[in-house]
């Protein structure tokens, strides 16, 4: 089977996917790569055409069977599919004509919603980023960010016109629709009107200050309320805090990307926290009670039983991370690491040597060590 084109990979489905799974994946990818959503990306346009070609084959049981048996060559230049009425990339286009019904509701969703959105909000969305500590993510915090945005023009009060009465008229290019349609290859695509930029109206006498846009650039301080339990990479939306729209149209939205800085003490996985704590050799051997830091700024005591091994983990219930919009908390897992002393005094060395002479490596006191070397001896005895 030829490997240069894999329709299943193009549609991001397995070769055993059902027809409904293929259709759902096609609709998702078509929305992502449609030329109207990627006007300056030729690769997206090419991917869009490839996706449609792949779907045209895989949605039809007969074409799919031919593809599974012969590959893409079945639909190119006289291949098995071409001779049997199957279409593809070659010659006859996308399977003898693309079925617009498969994308009718999808296009309506894209273009219809886009036109409604343009009338609802003429302002642009803005994105910014804010960094917080893990402790701030636990408690929640308010952060002030400075954004570069646009506000209504002070000269024309947002109308965009030097005429006090407004001076706005229906756009002659799109006739008020805010969008124009054009043939692009095999498809009819819809783009924002180049004359009115999607507004559906034009200004007869543009304001000299804002040149008819109705807005002017400015910097603004915005307070962002970050909820407790927020995770790294969360994007918060502040409705109406984006750039102002022309005329009386409402402003866009502000999107805040939250970045949580790594902690020196804790690692987080959802609502679960992990903390690694070093233990002295004597603490692990004899047992001890130690203080453990908690993310809420307090401390808790943890009892270490005698004979604790390095890497052993203890769970502290309800000492983990907060959950967004909930009062619950996760757990914290404390993993101990037994630390071997590196700088021994004379007396310390004498005591350890005495401990070794007294049988410090016996099976009763060091079961893992004794067990391992017992297996080593058995291995070599078996080899002999």
Automatic annotation (TrEMBL):
Its cofactor is Zn(2+). It comes from the Bacteria. GO terms for cellular component: cytoplasm. InterPro entries: DnaJ, DnaJ_C, DnaJ_domain, DnaJ_domain_CS, HSP40/DnaJ_pept-bd, HSP_DnaJ_Cys-rich_dom, HSP_DnaJ_Cys-rich_dom_sf, J_dom_sf. Signal peptide: none annotated. A zinc finger (CR-type) spans 140-219. Pfam families: DnaJ, DnaJ_C, DnaJ_CXXCXGXG. It is found in: Cytoplasm. Binds 2 Zn(2+) ions per monomer. Keywords: Chaperone, Cytoplasm, DNA replication, Metal-binding, Repeat, Stress response, Zinc, Zinc-finger. One of its GO terms (biological process) is DNA replication. Zn(2+) 2 binds at residues 171, 174, 193, 196. The J domain is necessary and sufficient to stimulate DnaK ATPase activity. Zinc center 1 plays an important role in the autonomous, DnaK-independent chaperone activity of DnaJ. Zinc center 2 is essential for interaction with DnaK and for DnaJ activity. Participates actively in the response to hyperosmotic and heat shock by preventing the aggregation of stress-denatured proteins and by disaggregating proteins, also in an autonomous, DnaK-independent fashion. Unfolded proteins bind initially to DnaJ; upon interaction with the DnaJ-bound protein, DnaK hydrolyzes its bound ATP, resulting in the formation of a stable complex. GrpE releases ADP from DnaK; ATP binding to DnaK triggers the release of the substrate protein, thus completing the reaction cycle. This is Chaperone protein DnaJ. It comes from Oecophyllibacter saccharovorans. The lineage of its organism: Bacteria, Pseudomonadati, Pseudomonadota, Alphaproteobacteria, Acetobacterales.
